[in-house]
Design goal:
The complex is a heterodimer of chains A (333) and B (258).
Chain A lengths: L4 H24 L7 H22 L5 H18 L11 H15 L1 H24 L4 H4 L3 H4 L2 H9 L10 H21 L6 H23 L3 H34 L7 H34 L8 H21 L9
Helix pairs in contact in A: 1-2, 1-3, 2-3, 4-12, 4-13, 5-10, 5-11, 9-10, 9-11, 9-12, 10-11, 11-12, 11-13
Chain B lengths: L1 E4 L2 E5 L5 E5 L3 H30 L3 H26 L5 H5 L2 E5 L7 H9 L1 H4 L6 H9 L6 H6 L1 E5 L8 H5 L10 H10 L2 H12 L6 H18 L4 H4 L4 H13 L2 H4 L1
Antiparallel strand pairs in B: 1-2, 2-3, 4-5
Classes of the chains: A mainly alpha (333), B mainly alpha (258).
Chain lengths: 333, 258
């Protein structure tokens, strides 16, 4: 069966152009709702283009026209058969106080797994540093942590000059971006069926445990809490959120106990991964500011009790926020 | 959904219509990434110069702004471009590529974010080695970010209506005298062969004389092998004339020409 290409084009082109214009309009105004008559027309144009594609596919016709129609049908197909709700205009405040904590609570399993892996790392790091003090040189990531804790405390407390003078903003920016990269990386490594996420969290735990045990056994627990708690109360949970996202991704890949296909599972979690990792990013901005402007200043500049109280209050507020915020509003999942 | 060739994804709609999406290969994607990397470097260099002026007033704020802006831009560039340009960045526009949902549905914001954040793993250990290997091994040319986000990268195709009047020029077509054989020729000719013949005619003036002769002789031989027309209809025809007559049979309305 052969068609007259010229006539076929002349007759059908206006309908393709109309469909293309409708699709362009949807592209420009994705929030605009169509009237029933417009929807019916859109569907008719889609079916017409589909029929034209079916016709032209069986003929020895110009492949470019076929490809054009394929592209048109593909675009219209995506709009007509999409069942997910269209993206609403984002209300940032509502997203942060409702969507983010709600999403966190929907996936508590992966979060507790991230906590467990980090605690396991802490225990390993703590035991390793007690059993083999030489391990300190290998485990500690920064030269400052390899020193004797008491010596460092003495040096910090007797410092006469502000070592971060004029650099606090830059240091805060470095901390924010570095920690956010770590959180993103921890999430992204979920694609390795969770192995990479586990290793990253465990390694973070090893460092944390080793530092904690080193300072506690040196009799510097108060300094440790005053130094770590103000920013760590937010930073560590934010990294755990990255781990939560990583394990969520891994569980969607593995699909234990789920009858859905891998594609369906991954499709479902993509918005939640986005929410969790953006939420962690917001927390890390705060943690970076606190670490640069507060955590690095010790007694007598800022009393340890005040720093510890500040950190404890942050931790309590964060726990309350993640556990309760958005419970009264409708789930935005 | 099925895969016709390694570089084409075929989708069947509920209406039974099959359409294909030509998948982009690792090389074109790598080149697009190169263009995007150039854009990021250019934009951040410009920002560096601008913030250099601010640095004269407050070096700390300028440095912090640059660090944060570089980080946000290097990560947010792909997300923002692909979201606002529906699957395209500057590099993808230049290379005519587009990110699409694997099932040709609307690209969601979550998908755009996930595929861009997983770039951290795809880039390992450098120059997209992990992503490149995944892309080569995957049936749908997907890097890890695409696998996690259920996305594919397709080649964007443009269309141009062929000018049949210019090609065929209203010349006498001896083959059309034999309607039943012409109908058989239409039936036996594959779309690909018809397209090649048409393309050869459209571009004949670009060919060297010897190459032109060989090409049309070869095509004519192919069409002759499909249907044998009587000698009186073909004996005076050169290879090019034969192919032109065949194209007219394939693309022109039968009742007008016969």
């Amino acid at each position: 069966m052969i068609i007259d290409l010229t006539r076929f084009l002349a007759e059908e082109r206006k309908h393709w152009a109309e469909l293309e214009a409708t699709l362009d309009r949807i592209d420009r105004n994705p929030d605009q709702r169509m009237q029933l008559a417009e929807l019916l027309k859109f569907h008719e144009l889609y079916e017409r283009a589909s029929a034209d594609l079916a016709k032209i596919e069986t003929f020895s016709s110009e492949p470019e026209i076929r490809r054009y129609l394929e592209g048109l049908v593909a675009r219209a197909y995506g709009e007509i058969h999409e069942t997910r709700e269209k993206q609403k205009r984002l209300n940032l405040w509502r997203w942060f106080v409702a969507t983010f904590p709600q999403t966190f609570r929907r996936h508590l399993g992966p979060f507790w797994l991230a906590v467990a892996v980090t605690i396991a790392g802490c225990l390993f790091g703590g035991v390793a540093i007690r059993m083999d003090p030489e391990a300190k040189q290998v485990i500690m990531p920064f030269p400052g942590l390899k020193d004797d804790p008491s010596e460092r405390v003495r040096r910090e407390e007797s410092a006469k000059q502000d070592k971060l003078a004029g650099q606090k903003s830059t240091f805060a920016a470095q901390l924010m971006t570095h920690n956010t990269q770590v959180a993103i990386f921890t999430m992204a490594l979920g694609i390795t069926w969770g192995a990479g996420t586990t290793i990253t969290l465990f390694y973070n735990g090893v460092i944390l445990g080793a530092v904690a045990v080193d300072y506690v056994y040196a009799g510097q627990a108060r300094f440790l809490l005053g130094w770590l708690l103000p920013h760590g109360a937010i930073e560590i949970p934010a990294i755990l959120l990255g781990g939560q996202a990583g394990f969520l991704l891994a569980s969607a890949l593995i699909g234990w106990g789920s009858r859905k296909t891998r594609r369906q599972r991954l499709r479902e979690i993509a918005p939640d991964l986005t929410t969790i990792i953006f939420g962690a990013g917001v927390l890390l901005v705060w943690a970076g500011i606190v670490e640069s402007f507060l955590s690095q200043y010790h007694q007598p500049v800022i009393p340890y009790a005040l720093k510890i109280a500040f950190g404890a209050a942050e931790l309590a507020a964060l726990t309350l926020f993640l556990a309760k915020s958005g419970t009264s509003s409708k789930s935005s999942a | 959904m099925r895969y016709a060739r390694t570089n084409t994804l075929l989708l069947r709609t509920p209406e039974g219509i099959v359409f294909s999406l030509p998948l982009a290969g690792p090389v074109s994607r790598f080149l697009a990434w190169g263009v995007d990397a150039g854009c990021i470097v250019a934009a951040t260099s410009l920002l560096h110069e601008v913030l250099g002026l601010l640095g004269n007033i407050n070096a700390g704020i300028a440095g912090a702004t640059y660090i944060v802006a570089y980080f946000v831009f290097s990560i947010g560039y792909g997300i923002a471009c692909e979201w606002y340009w529906r699957g395209q960045t500057v590099g993808k526009r230049v290379l005519k590529l587009r990110v699409m949902d694997e099932q040709a549905l609307r690209l969601g914001f979550g998908q755009v974010v996930v595929r861009n954040l997983l770039r951290f793993v795809d880039l390992l250990p450098g120059l997209y080695l992990v992503g490149g290997i995944a892309c080569v091994l995957s049936r749908r040319s997907q890097r890890l970010g695409d696998l996690a986000a259920n996305t594919i990268v397709v080649r964007q195709l443009e269309t141009a209506q062929p000018n049949l009047e210019q090609v065929l020029g209203g010349k006498f077509n001896s083959l059309l005298e034999y309607r039943h054989l012409a109908a058989r020729l239409r039936q036996r000719t594959s779309p690909q062969a018809g397209a090649v013949a048409l393309e050869a005619l459209v571009r004949r003036d670009e060919l060297e004389p010897q190459a032109r002769l060989q090409l049309f002789d070869g095509l004519a031989q192919h069409f002759r092998s499909l249907v044998e027309f009587p000698l009186e209809a073909t004996e005076q025809l050169s290879g090019e004339q034969y192919v032109r007559n065949v194209v007219e049979i394939l693309y022109r309305r039968a009742d007008r020409s016969a």
